[in-house]
Write a structure and sequence with these properties.
This protein is of the alpha+beta class. The chain has helices spanning 8-15, 32-48, 63-68, 95-105, 113-122, 126-134, 143-154, 158-165, 171-183, 196-207, 211-224, 228-244, 249-263, and strands at 22-27, 53-58, 76-81, 84-90. Strands 2-1-3-4 form a four-stranded mixed sheet, sandwiched between helices. The protein starts with 7 loop residues before the first helix and ends with a helix. The mean pLDDT is 86.
């Protein structure tokens, strides 16, 4: 949220940070780096799904707040928890470094590995999700964390992912089995039909982690034939929806088309 009234800082930042970490971005309209950096922060705040929240403060409108919190240059980012600044930096960090800064500085209760991994999977960052979960000792890893690790690996190491889930029957484990089988398909494994090319193209996009493009192509394949290759395109869509969750924008965008095509 953008701060509009100075005294709102108390409720929006200091009081709010008692229950959830608050990242405050001090910026100004004339600041070029701020204009590039602000959308990155907003994107990560959206991905965080409430695990931390973003408040932006225009220093032109609230110079007294900038002075109070020692802002010397902008963009200036401060992380508040329990009413106090617990971490900060100045300058525009690239997205990978900003993600690392958040991982390192968010309070421990808000840094549950499976939550970060779920967000990373939802944005197609398989390697990041794998790195998040691989640091947990196998003996200490929960079945849910193991399933997420398998999902992170399935796009590059399908057989290893299958080994991780074994015969466990969960929604994520079933998605791993579906995707592993799909990613193993090649042109010679599929009969000639109009649904073949979009299905293969969707698999290629899936390998690359481009989920929107993959879903569009799988829907296109379904429009040619829902039953083609034992319903591979439909099963792929359902597996992706499971990874993303029902409220993810891609699920909300493509699930209705999947349902319509299935019922047609």
């Amino acid at each position: 949220m953008e701060l509009t009234v100075a005294h709102d800082f108390i409720s929006a930042v200091l009081h709010r940070s008692e229950t959830v970490p608050v990242v405050v971005d001090f910026w100004a309209p004339w600041c070029g780096p701020c204009k590039v950096f602000k959308p990155i922060l907003e994107k990560l705040a959206s991905e965080a799904r409430g695990h931390w929240v973003l408040v932006t403060v225009n220093t032109e409108n609230f110079p007294e707040l900038a002075q109070q919190f020692g802002v010397r240059g902008i963009p200036d980012v401060k992380l508040f928890s329990k009413g106090n600044v617990i971490a900060q930096f100045s300058g525009a960090l690239p997205e990978p470094l900003l993600r690392s800064w958040l991982m390192e500085n968010l309070p421990a209760p808000d840094r549950r590995p499976e939550e970060f991994a779920q967000d990373e999977l939802a944005t197609g960052r398989w390697a990041d999700a794998e790195a998040t979960l691989a640091g947990i000792r196998p003996s200490e890893r929960t079945p849910a964390q193991t399933d997420l690790l398998a999902l992170a690996r399935v796009f590059r190491h399908p057989q290893g992912a299958l080994t991780l889930v074994g015969d466990r029957r969960t929604a994520h484990a079933d998605s791993v089995r579906t995707l592993a089988g799909l990613l193993a398909l090649g042109p010679d494994d599929l009969p000639e039909y109009s649904a073949k090319l979009p299905l293969l193209a969707g698999i290629a996009e899936l390998h690359a982690g481009r989920l929107p493009e993959a879903l569009r192509l799988f829907i296109a394949s379904m429009e040619e034939s829902v039953r083609y290759a034992d319903g591979a395109a439909s099963r792929a869509c359902l597996a992706i929806f499971t990874i993303l969750g029902p409220q993810h924008p891609l699920t909300e965008e493509f699930a209705p088309a999947h349902r319509r095509t299935t019922r047609a």
